[in-house]
Design goal:
The protein is an all-alpha fold. About 100% of the residues lie in helices and about 0% in strands. It has one domain. The chain is rod-shaped. The termini are far apart.
């Protein structure tokens, strides 16, 4: 009878340890999945920052060109205005 009780106690211990391990896995699995998702989000944010920097550079170049065009137009307007004043 003692052997049966001992085997029963060993089985209860193994089942308890197995349950404990299952609970630990249940808690750690979502945390690991969350880490993966956070890493993907960080990668996407970095890609968006690079894309934004590229757009910013292009906008700055266009802004410089627009400034040059505006200066040229102003100069032409002054010349045309002066030319038409002389005709009157």
């Amino acid at each position: 009878m003692e052997e049966a009780q001992f085997i029963g106690e060993v089985l209860k211990t193994l089942i308890t340890l197995g349950s404990f391990v299952a609970v630990i896995v249940k808690f750690t699995q979502p945390i690991n999945e969350l880490r993966i998702v956070i890493q993907k989000l960080n990668d996407n944010i970095d890609a968006m920052k690079k894309d934004n920097e590229n757009h910013e550079k292009r906008l700055n170049r266009h802004d410089d060109k627009l400034g040059d065009h505006e200066n040229r137009i102003n100069t032409l307007e002054v010349k045309v205005g002066t030319y038409h004043k002389n005709d009157e």
